[in-house]
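Homework help board

Subject: predicted structure for assignment chain

Our instructor gave us this sequence and asked us to write out the predicted structure in token form, then describe one feature. I got the tokens but I'm not sure how to describe them. Can anyone check?
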Amino acid sequence: MISGQGQGLLAVVAGAAIIVAFRQVARLSRKPDLRVRLLKSECAKLIALSEDLQKRMTRERQGLVTADEVYSWDTRAYRLARRRLGGFSPSASIQMAITELDEAGADLRAAWQQSLNGSAEGQEDLFAAAMSAHSEAIGNLAAAGSILVRFSWPSGQPGEIR
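My token output:
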């Protein structure tokens, strides 16, 4: 049996532990979790790498760089970001956007490669259409990623006044 003073001390300690626990929960609930930060980071990497590929191809077609600049694009970093993003996000919209970006990227690379091999009629249109589809796929991934990030904030969107 605990004496009156012991019970009072126990109540103070228990009360302090409860306050510390609630503060910790409140602090953690104000921050997006690690998974969301990783999702955002990998989504941004995938978009940046895709835009870099477009820039390299455009500069090569303008004669500002050689084809080696396009060939040196970091495929490994793209695949790693793609794999991580796919693993972090079980969302069907993210998975669909990644697949669309992969397909559009493959079409873009094929159209660019064809434009290197000859100057057959219609290749310029084929490349322009592939570039447009790739840009649209980048935008779709950005939109899918932004929706998930926006809904992951426990108290609304960042900067939102409540």
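Reply (TA_rk): Your tokens look well-formed. For the description, you could write something like this. The chain has a mean pLDDT of 81. That's the kind of observation they're looking for.
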